[in-house]
Automatic annotation (TrEMBL):
This is Amino acid ABC transporter permease. GO terms for cellular component: ATP-binding cassette (ABC) transporter complex. PROSITE patterns: ABC_TM1 (PS50928). Residues 14-203 form the ABC transmembrane type-1 domain. The lineage of its organism: Bacteria, Bacillati, Actinomycetota, Actinomycetes, Kitasatosporales. Belongs to the binding-protein-dependent transport system permease family. Its main location: membrane. It is a multi-pass membrane protein. One of its GO terms (biological process) is amino acid transport. It is found in: Cell membrane. It comes from Streptomyces sparsogenes DSM 40356. The chain crosses the membrane at residues 14-38, 50-71, 77-98, 184-202. One of its GO terms (molecular function) is transmembrane transporter activity. It holds the Pfam family BPD_transp_1.
Length: 250
């Protein structure tokens, strides 16, 4: 493979893939938190509308949605999206629907006693969510979000279908120019793996930091007999009480 292919196609395509992953992940995160929290609303109409959104976008193909946004919307609405943003919108809406279920499940998993304690402290619903529920739910969201982020990264390969010059699109051009499918697609596999590996490490670091904020990080100094340590359930209860107390002090 010549240096010209790297400079003109593969490296720019890899940078496009990074941008697509970043923009789509940010948009999907906004959708996931907005819809996921709304699905816990007391208003049935809010739960119905957000549930309808989740079912629609989980049940449709991201590729077909991309085609619809790029090819159909200009004909029906007279509005043309740039291929890059059509791809970001399709990926963000699709993976945001999956992410919203992660958010909803993590929020629902927070012990009811935490909500009751926040109510006893006269927290408003917004304060309960921001100071009590989300700080405990976010560490539980990160591992499934990590898997979803890797799936999103691999899903960016779909954008080559609407002529976005990402890594996969650059690989197709390189294969047509050289006829060497083995070398080019092997390199592309390695490039995707490296990017996925880096994202995984970053998400694990974020998970450790989030758990450390709740006092859930492993204590390396605790090397004494097991009988002298507090049970994990007692530690969690004590940590949760500290969190509520801290929130009330604010």
């Amino acid at each position: 493979m010549t240096a010209g292919l790297w400079e003109k196609w593969l490296l720019p395509g890899f940078w496009i893939t990074i941008q697509l992953t970043l923009y789509s992940a940010l948009f999907a995160a906004v959708v996931a938190f907005g819809v996921g929290i709304a699905r816990t609303s007391r208003l049935w109409i809010v739960r119905f509308l957000t549930g309808f959104y989740v079912e629609v976008f989980r049940g449709t193909s991201a590729l077909v949605l991309m085609f619809w946004l790029f090819f159909v919307m200009p004909l029906g609405f007279g509005f043309q999206l740039v291929p890059m943003w059509a791809a970001v919108l399709a990926l963000g809406l699709t993976y945001g629907a999956y992410g919203s279920e992660i958010v909803r499940g993590a929020v629902a998993a927070v012990p009811p006693a935490q909500r009751e304690a926040a109510i006893a402290l006269s927290f408003t619903p917004a304060q309960r969510m921001r100071r009590v529920i989300l700080p405990q739910a976010i560490p539980e969201m990160i591992p499934p979000f990590n898997n979803l982020l890797i799936e999103l990264l691999k899903g960016t390969a779909l954008v080559s279908a609407v002529s976005v010059a990402d890594t996969t699109f650059a690989a197709q051009l390189s294969r047509l120019a050289t006829g060497d499918s083995l070398e080019i697609y092997s390199i592309i596999l390695v490039m995707y793996f490296v990017l996925a590996f880096v994202l995984t490490r970053l998400m694990r670091l974020l998970e450790r930091r989030a758990k450390a904020g709740l006092g859930q990080a492993p204590d390396k100094r605790a090397k004494g007999p097991a009988l002298t340590r507090k049970p994990s359930g007692a530690r969690k209860t004590e940590q949760s009480s500290d969190l509520i107390t801290a929130g009330g002090a604010q």
